[in-house]
Amino acid sequence: MPFLQADQFKHHVDSFNAMDEETIVNLIPNTQSWQWMTQNIPLFTCPDKTIEKIYYFRWWTYRKHIVQTPAGLVVTEFLPPVSHGGPFNTISCAAGHHIAEGRWLRDQKFLDDYTRFWFRGDNGKPLRTFHHYSSWIASAMYDRYLVTGDHAQLIDLFDDLTTDYTTWEAERLRPDGLFWQFDVRDGMESSISGSRTFKNARPTINSYMYGNARAIAEIATIAGKEKIAPTYRSKADALKALVQKTLWDSDAHFFKAQIREDGLSDAREEIGFIPWAFNLPDAGYEDAWIQLIDPHGFWAPFGITTAEQRHPRFRAHRVGNSEWDGAVWPFATSQTLSALANLIRQYKQSFVTREHYLEAIQAYAHSQLENGKPYIGDYLDGATGEWIKGDNPRSRFYNHSTFNDLIINGLVGIVPRPDATIEIDSLLPDRAWDWFCLQGVPYHGQQLTIIWDQTGKKFNVEPGLNIFVEDRKIAHSPNLSRLIAKLT
Questions:
Q1: Quick one: what percent of the chain has pLDDT higher than 70?
Q2: Are 474 and 422 in contact (CB under 8 A)?
């Protein structure tokens, strides 16, 4: 017996359709958006109606970017064609975000096509535009497998993944063992520490490549190529050691970019949190997170700034083009909140809490408005919430970040695993909400429903946290503490 009925939430989509002129139509037009959503998305409800609305808004916008091409289905960032786009207007910069968000949908064919497209879309070879931007695609593919339980594509593309890693080493590995990147090729142009000429070692690409190496090692075992796994574990271990030794500023207590290949930037930037998105740091570096919640650091009324606000060059460019010198970028917010989730769950520290995670999600949700209507664009002013490009047709519905992954994996707390086990570790603080329900989550080929009902009266269930597989309850806890259960 379902606890939620899809029609309870149709009014959200009706309002989104009514506000949209729909000048560009891809595979799924607005008229079919609700039908597609009822067939594909997990239903979600909670007491915070802004978070609930933005949850449905982000699925509604995501489907706008699924495009049918002669090469199969792909996912785009922009709806209008952009000059820096590749075939079919694709851009590799946010591919990791696209996979993370899309892994929670029921029909995964489009992600199969899209992932294969990057590796074999040019007559069986990788797209020439694939390496225009740094990428954590191998890590994202493995994380997707942890949700779906389907390893067929990982095995099929295993040789492509190792070739891709080797190509990155040939293109971007410095003699000291660290990867370098221009800030614009991280998708983070005009940053305080960035350069378009110097081969700076940045926490971004080195964390991505660490995550990719770890993922390839795991995939090697799945693919029956165990002899390859130690090579990639060694690559990951070497990167971890170098990042901690070379990119950690022991005075500023922060991971930073190198500048001019000599020394570290004098600015703390949001990219310093990215290592935790891939569980790279050992214990002992957690005090960097003091800066997250410092109002002179990264904590702003409408989100997490991309540079510390106390820095003299914070928002110094102010040209309204694409500045990563302090504005709030949803792309970076997604990475930081993923990192924060890992920190809270896996590291012993007292600097940041579940309360901070919820507050950040609330700020993120409330920022996704323009003239009172749901809106997701490039970047915004953290102090005022103003979208810096305004309601720009080019950046409207910008598919360059995650939100629903942060709800499902973060607040609700589904922690994907490779075994036939469901783990719930909600980042919702105790007593923050009396209830929530996430229904119909595809996981390892089955449908999950997660209900938190403090009194049991909202959904007529046993008071507390309940996990259902299909119509069968498999686990219960009287509180929101970590809960693990076998799927069968």
A1: 100
A2: yes
How far apart are the C-alpha atoms of 300 and 97, rounded to whole Å? 23
At residue 134, what are phi and psi to the nearest 5 degrees?
-60, 155
Q: What is the largest CA-CA distance in the chain?
A: 63
Interaxial angle between packed helices 229-246 and 203-222, expressed in degrees from 0 to 180 and rounded to the nearest 10: 160
**Identity of the residue numbered 455:** T
363 contacts: CB under 8 Å, gap ≥ 6: 300, 301, 302, 303, 304
d(CA 172, CA 112): 27
Mean pLDDT within 195-213: 96
Computed over its alpha carbons, how large is the radius of gyration of the chain?
21
Burial environment of residue 284 by CB neighbours within 10 A (0 to 12, 13 to 18, 19 or more)? exposed
Element housing 474 (H / E) = strand 472-477
20-53: pLDDT as tens digits: 999 999 999 999 999 999 999 999 999 999 999 9
Positive/negative CA dihedral, 85, 181, 249, 213: positive
Reported as a single tens digit per residue, the pLDDT across 337-384 is 999 999 999 999 999 999 999 999 999 999 999 988 999 999 999 999
Tell me the per-residue pLDDT of 396-419, one tens digit each, with 9 for 90 and over: 999 999 999 999 999 999 999 999
Q: Per-residue pLDDT tens for 244-258?
A: 999 999 999 999 999
If one counts every other C-beta atom within 10 angstroms of the C-beta of residue 41, the result is 24
Exposure b/e, 385-422, CB count within 10 A at least 16 = b: bebbbeeeeebbbbbbbbbbbbbbbbbbbbbbbeeeeb
Beta strands 472-477; 254-255: pairing state: unpaired
Tell me if residue 449 falls in helix, strand or coil: strand
With helix as H, strand as E and coil as C, how does 274-317 read?
HHHHCCCCCCCCHHHHHHCCCCCCCEECCEECCECCCCCCCCCC
CA-CA-CA-CA torsion for 194, 199, 204, 207, nearest 10 degrees?
-160
Q: Distance between CA 351 and CA 446 in Å, rounded?
A: 37
CA distance 288 to 328: 19
Q: pLDDT at residue 262 above 80?
A: no
